[in-house]
Amino acid sequence: MTTAEKYVTAAYCVVFALVLLYVVIIALKLQRLEHEVDELADRAVATDAEEQREPAKVG
Amino acid sequence: MSRTYRIPLPALAAASLVLVTTALAFVFFVAPTDADQGFSQRIFYFHVSIAFTAYAAFGLGAWKALRHLWKRDPNADLESYVGIHQGVIFGALVLLTGSIWARISWGHWWLWSENQLVLFLVLFLFYAAYFMLRFSIDPGPQRANLCAVYALFGVVLIPVSFLAIRLAQRFIHPVVFTRHGAEFGGWIMVTYLVSQAAMLVLAYTLYRVELSGKRLDARLRELRRAYA
Q1: Is B224 in CB contact (< 8 Å) with chain A?
Q2: What is the pTM (predicted TM-score) of this model?
Q3: A5, A19, B33, B58 — which has fewest CB within 10 A?
């Protein structure tokens, strides 16, 4: 591999690496959002169950 | 509420993949080797495409900032922020690929005497400082207004960065787009155009992905507040 070829490879690898890093950061953020959605869904289910358990007022 | 048609994200991602792969194939297997610079000239195809994409992203950020100030578009502030974020990412790539190309072509990683390099660095740092401004103010209309004004000021640097070198008399940074058009043709032009299309579509895809994530995040925060 000549010096020019090494530098060209390095330049294209830098582009690839930075775009990949960006995708990884976005993926981590999506993972966090997914976790938050799950938490909210659990809370919604728990609230529903609590409402159903409340005794109905008679009279 | 009127809805504008948007290309679905999976279609954009597929188009990016196809275009970037095609561009790489053209760069390494179709484009002829430059008689003057040799193999290292192949950096040009992505370096210049990324530079124009960075300008386009900063321009988009400024356009959305103008829409925020002018039309009070409720989505414009976030869109402006994401556009500038893309501009900074692509700007960093321009500086990195340019530096590698400079090392092999001129023997230096950076030359402070080159107006185009310094002006691009100024543009990059100006927009990098946008994030310091944004994250130092509490979210709200005041932050949106200040950020929009800042983004609009920065857009003035784009033509300065692009034209300064063309008005200068002495430079070693190559200028391939002159008043008479591009100074290349044939397969070099085809490869450049494919690379340019690839970078623009890739940047737009990343812009849309980031925007979707940010909108989802904002909606979740609203939901959290409602449940609290």
Answers
A1: yes
A2: 0.86
A3: B33
